[in-house]
Amino acid sequence: MNALILTGGISQRMGRDKALIERPDGTRQIDHMAALARRFSDHVFLSTRDDNDRGTGLPLLVDEVPGSGPTAALSAAAATGLSGPWLVLGCDLFLLDEATIGHLVEHRDPSRTSTAFRNRIDGRAEPLCAIYAESGIQAARDAHRCARKFLEALDPLLLDLPYPAALDNVNTPADLTEAFLKLERGVVPKAVSLLYFAILREARGLSAESVETLAWTAAGLYEELSFRHRLPLETSQLRVARNGEFSSWDAPVADGDEFVFIPPVAGG
């Protein structure tokens, strides 16, 4: 099996190269991902928008059209002409572990063009921790769509995640804080109560609900809700209150808490 680690993004929302971020144990994220990939493949490549291997020594597959997204990386993999399936991993999966990849490899169906996990929140295919058969990789050469839509068009075998938070996105500093707390404290479900006002109440179609969350921070909780329900506002546009008191977005989440996400009020 070949393996491809994707590092072609510009990390604009993070404000720095996510591949070079140090994990809580001091390991660079790119080195962590390379070590994981090597446990499943003797042919590990780094997908990049330039010729920078970030000190890994891995062979590079440079995007033919920089900035054109993960399907460009898959197309570059297809252009190598290598036979066999490809294990494709996004570099910014800070919670990904060997057991999750092992589950994917063990349950892969070689007769299918691809095998992937369902996203834990919306149930759709996760393209950046997936195995693409040779035919699936070749199809990327004609793809002009987002990675998720491309994968879904391949009719993949979809698996449930054995470890729910393993593929959680890390795009912002707040996401990184959330991911590191999960690494340090574990992934712990918590029941919380939510109150909605104004535009958020309209978007949800209700004023209150109780939910289960894996988040450790108020920001992480809102990101879960926003992803699940496509909420119209970002944290920068809101204030948050925890248990009746205004708080910061890094406020902790504990079982039984009540949160209110407060949108701007016209004229106020």
Automatic annotation (TrEMBL):
Domain of life from the UniProt record: Bacteria
Keywords linked to the UniProt accession: Cytoplasm, GTP-binding, Magnesium, Metal-binding, Molybdenum cofactor biosynthesis, Nucleotide-binding, Transferase
Domain MobA-like NTP transferase: 3-155
Record keyword Nucleotide-binding present: yes
One GO molecular-function entry: metal ion binding
Presence of keyword Nucleotide-binding: yes
GO biological process: Mo-molybdopterin cofactor biosynthetic process
CDD domains for this protein: MobA, Ubl_MoaD
Name of the protein in its database record: NTP transferase domain-containing protein
Taxon lineage: Bacteria, Pseudomonadati, Verrucomicrobiota, Verrucomicrobiia, Verrucomicrobiales
